[in-house]
Write a structure and sequence with these properties.
By secondary structure, the chain is mostly helical. Helices cover 54% and strands 5% of the residues. The chain contains 7 helices and 2 strands, in the order ααααβααβα. The chain has a two-stranded parallel sheet with strand order 1-2. α3 runs parallel beside α4. The longest helix has 19 residues. The protein is globular, with a radius of gyration of 17 Å. The two termini are 30 Å apart. The structure holds adenosine-5'-diphosphate and shikimate-3-phosphate. Belongs to the shikimate kinase family. It comes from Hydrogenophaga electricum. InterPro entries: P-loop_NTPase, Shikimate/glucono_kinase, Shikimate_kinase/TSH1, Shikimate_kinase_CS. Keywords: Amino-acid biosynthesis, Aromatic amino acid biosynthesis, ATP-binding, Kinase, Nucleotide-binding, Transferase.
Length: 153
């Protein structure tokens, strides 16, 4: 979405305009996509939880699922990827550890559900998420005033 709007890659935009300009744009697009009655899956950028306004917006308007991954797992998945601007540093694993320490509490704050993604296959994770969403929307304990379990790990 954001790349369509800016007409270049996010990495290039970061280099030309800086992170704050990117965050402004991200906030604007997030608000547009989450306002209204549309349904769908929104896969946010990893840093979208940094601004409190985004966390509040997401939590109020969406069912938010935090796909939790440890820095070592993210490093394994992304070590050859050159499109993640924050990871183009000498020690990307250390950067991932720092980002995790700073962001894990923010993701938890924004999320309705936390799903640990370390071990299960993607298919298993999808099933877990679907079950959580079904549980959250079905009548039952939550209809009697109890919140659905915040973790699915
Ligand atoms: N649960 C998972 N198990 C194994 N690999 C994964 C899993 N989730 C994502 N990946 C891989 O990690 C990389 C980054 O995933 P991606 O969905 O692009 O993350 P994001 O949207 O958070 O940037 C991709 O190569 C993807 O296939
Ligand atoms: O973690 C971050 O701060 C960012 C993650 C990126 O999205 P992905 O989570 O898809 O990599 C993208 O929004 C931008 O490069 C900043």
């Amino acid at each position: 979405m954001i790349e369509q709007r800016i007409g270049c890659s996010i990495r290039t935009f970061f280099e030309r305009e800086g992170e704050e300009r990117f965050r402004d744009l991200e906030q604007q697009v997030l608000a547009e996509l989450t306002t209204g009655s549309g349904r769908g899956v929104l896969s946010t950028g990893g840093g979208s939880v940094l601004r409190e306004a985004n966390r509040v917006q997401l939590k109020q308007h969406c069912q938010v699922i935090y796909l939790r991954a440890l820095p070592e797992d993210v490093y394994r998945r992304l070590r050859h990827d050159r499109n993640r601007p924050l990871l183009q540093v000498d020690d990307p694993l250390q950067r991932l550890k720092d980002l995790f320490a700073a962001r894990d509490p923010l993701y938890r704050d924004a999320a309705h559900y936390v799903v640990d993604t370390g071990r299960p296959s993607v298919a298993t994770l999808v099933n877990m998420i679907m079950m959580q969403l079904d549980l959250g929307s079905s009548p039952g304990p939550s209809a009697a005033g109890e919140a659905p379990s915040p973790t699915a790990s």
